[in-house]
Every structure is written in C-alpha cells, then in structure tokens.
C-alpha cells in the first residue's frame, strides 16, 4: 500500500496503473473511518482493480468553524484499517496542496441544493463540489463510490459529473448501520454516552414510519417522525423532508412520485446526525 501526500506523486502512480489497463476505483473520505467507509472500499474491490482512498477533511465544505475544529481525525488508525483491506493507494493531501489559492468557483445545482442540507448548511455543497471536482481531476477514476447515507450529496455529485461531463461512473452504496440501527458516522464518536443511547431513536422512528405511512398523508407522516424524535427530549430535529428521490423536492402526496425518500437531520446536543429512509422505489 502506498501513502502519498502530493498531487504529483498521486498522478505518477495513477498514470502507471492506467498504462497497465487497471480500472481505478476511488473512495473519497474525510477519514475517522468506520464500517460505512469500508463498505465503499469493499464495493470498489468488486468493481475495480486499483483502489484509491482519499483522506482529507475539506475545510471549504464546513459552514461551521467549530464543526471543522472538532471533526474527528485519526490517520494512523485509518491507515491500518485500509491496509487490512489491501487498498492500493491512500491520498492524504494537506489543505495547501489542495487549495494553493482560494477556490472561487461557484457551482449551480439548480433546485438540488436549495433544500435540506443545502438550506441549513449554506455553501456546504459548493465546498463538496470544489473538492470532489479537484479530486476527480487528480485521480481520474473510472468509478467513484459514495454512500447513500449522504443522500443529497450523492444526487449533487451525480449532477456535477453530468454537468461537467466527467468520465467517471458514480456508484451509490447502501447505508451501513450499527447493530442498534444508528447510521454509522464519524461524528458518532463525538456523542456523549447519554446521547449515544438516545441516537438510535432516529433510525427506529424512520423505519417505523414506513409502516405508519400506509393510510396516512405525507404531512401526518412528517409530523409523526418529528414529534416522536423531539419527544425524546434529547434529540432535536433540524428538518425532516419527504422528497422525490431524483429532484429532492418535497412531495405532497404519496403518488406524486414513484421514488420517495425521507431525509432527516437531527441535533444530539451539538452533534449533527443525518439519515434517510426510502418509502417508495419504482
Ligand atoms: P465522509 O468521510 O463522512 O465524508 O464520508 C465518505 C463517504 O462515506 C461518503 O460517500 C459517505 O456517504 C460514505 N458514508 C459515510 N457513512 C456511511 C454509512 N454509514 N454507510 C455508507 N456510506 C457511508
């Protein structure tokens, strides 16, 4: 396994591999790896010959300086986990390497980033697009693997690739959960023991809402989810929206679309957790 920090070393290595005809699979991460990240690597192993994992806490996607400061980092542990999966290359650039000068690019995602995360984290997806477009340009992967946990991010990346006509196939991978249902996240390690005990209520409520929804309106379902989670007294819903899975725009009725997803962001103290559940898929 190679670990490189410069774009030049990265590109030299990739060029060699491409010359050998290897299919490059890419898994971008911000580190503090868990089984969710590893599932992307496992999917990349199935679909490609040479796996590149980037570990880079991208400052331009943090709209909250405290969140950036407290974001968990543990490179030694990450490296060990990736070594166990025989990942071929880890790219861990510095901020200066990725942003030698300020990135002033502004991306237009139409309505996709006007809702949910886009509404509550202004500039977040522009920062994601800045870093992902740079990484795609540097790694030139054949396939890139993203988790459906970040449902809106996946939609935005698909649009970015389409708009910029990037020759990369974006592969979405299912959410990996803790045994108690909590969606795995690097931020889970920031939860106090008490918050950690309460956090599984998010997934539990989402799953229960799948049954609740039959015979109920979209609005009744939204209210039920929000009230149940807020009712715990420990968790606070920032938003819960039931949306068209392609356009991400809220639906009023269950037959408004044949692809319907409920996306949620919840504060457990200062820690912000996201999750989603699919009500209808084609
Ligand atoms: P992050 O390090 O949080 O930026 O995440 C890197 C990638 O891992 C993104 O594509 C995430 O969607 C994905 N990911 C994070 N958590 C999970 C999870 N619990 N299940 C599946 N994928 C995940």
Which helices and strands occur, and which strands form pairs?
Blueprint: E1 2-4, H1 7-19, E2 24-29, H2 35-47, E3 50-55, H3 65-70, H4 75-84, E4 89-91, H5 95-98, H6 117-120, H7 124-139, E5 143-147, H8 151-163, E6 169-173, H9 193-198, H10 200-212, H11 218-230, E7 235-244, E8 259-268, E9 271-281
Parallel strand pairs: 1-4, 2-3, 2-5, 3-4, 5-6
Antiparallel strand pairs: 7-8, 8-9
Helix pairs in contact: 7-8, 10-11
The chain binds adenosine monophosphate (AMP).
Describe the structure.
The protein has 282 residues and is an alpha/beta fold. The protein folds into 2 domains: 2-173, 3-Layer(aba) Sandwich (Rossmann fold); 186-276, Pantoate-beta-alanine ligase, C-terminal domain (Pantoate--beta-alanine Ligase, Chain: A,domain 2, 2-Layer Sandwich). The chain has helices spanning 7-19, 35-47, 65-70, 75-84, 95-98, 117-120, 124-139, 151-163, 193-198, 200-212, 218-230; strands at residues 2-4, 24-29, 50-55, 89-91, 143-147, 169-173, 235-244, 259-268, 271-281. The strands form 2 sheets. It has a 6-stranded parallel sheet, sandwiched between helices. Strands 7-8-9 form a 3-stranded antiparallel sheet. α10 packs antiparallel against α11 (218-230). It is globular, with a radius of gyration of 19 Å. The protein starts with a strand and ends with a strand. The relative contact order is 0.13. The mean pLDDT is 98. The site of adenosine monophosphate (AMP) has 17 residues, from α2 and β5.
């Amino acid at each position: 396994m190679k670990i490189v920090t410069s774009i030049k070393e990265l590109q030299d290595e990739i060029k060699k591999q491409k010359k050998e005809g290897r299919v490059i699979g890419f898994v971008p991460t911000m580190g503090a790896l868990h089984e969710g990240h590893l599932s992307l690597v496992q999917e990349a192993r199935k679909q490609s010959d040479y796996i590149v994992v980037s570990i880079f806490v991208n400052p331009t996607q943090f709209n909250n300086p405290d969140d950036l400061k407290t974001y968990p980092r543990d490179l030694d542990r990450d490296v060990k986990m990736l070594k166990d999966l025989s990942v071929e290359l880890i790219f861990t650039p510095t901020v200066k390497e990725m942003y030698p000068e300020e990135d002033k690019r502004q991306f237009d995602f139409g309505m996709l980033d006007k809702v949910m995360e886009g509404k509550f984290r202004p500039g977040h997806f522009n920062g994601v697009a800045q870093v992902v477009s740079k990484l795609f340009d540097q790694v030139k992967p054949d396939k890139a693997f993203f988790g459906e946990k970040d449902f809106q991010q996946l939609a935005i990346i698909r649009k970015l690739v389409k708009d910029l006509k990037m020759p990369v196939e974006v592969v979405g991978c299912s959410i990996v959960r803790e045994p108690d249902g909590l969606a795995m996240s690097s931020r889970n390690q920031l939860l106090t023991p008490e918050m950690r005990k309460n956090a599984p209520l998010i997934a539990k409520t989402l799953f229960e809402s799948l049954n609740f929804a039959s015979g109920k309106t979209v609005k009744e379902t939204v209210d039920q989810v929000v009230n149940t989670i807020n009712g715990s007294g420990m968790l606070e819903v920032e938003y819960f929206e039931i949306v068209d899975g392609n356009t991400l725009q809220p639906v009023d009725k269950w037959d408004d679309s044949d692809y319907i997803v409920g996306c949620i962001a919840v504060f457990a103290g200062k820690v912000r957790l996201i999750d989603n559940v699919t009500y209808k898929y084609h």
